[in-house]
Amino acid sequence: MTIATDFDGTLVEHAYPAIGKPIPFAIETLKKLQQEGHHQIILWTSREGELLDEAVEYCKSKGLEFYSVNSNYPEEKAEDRPSRKLVADVYIDDRNLGGLPDWGIIYQMIHSGRPLQPAPEGNIEDRPRKRGILERLLG
User: For position 118, what pLDDT does the model report?
Assistant: First the structure.
């Protein structure tokens, strides 16, 4: 599965142009998905130039390396693509309708191949916080 993930507000808190504090379990979840061996992670961000390099290096320092950055595959050049939109099976972004789910829920959705089911009591933010699968797995 190809997974495109945003950076600001998704892997780290919003602090653009600086790099914000890490969002709990974001990078660990993506690393775990990579380790399972059948997921390609693409960084899909509006950052460019030096700011993009800083984001990539930040992730690399945490042990997360991407299949590609702002492209469908490592060798792709921007002029080879008709649009900036990437071809991915899943897009993870804090600007989703409904916001960014807990990273444990994101893992469960990708791992199981099933979409998030709406909470009986309404909005996802209204649900009580439960320990996600990664919190349980990583201790």
Answer: 56
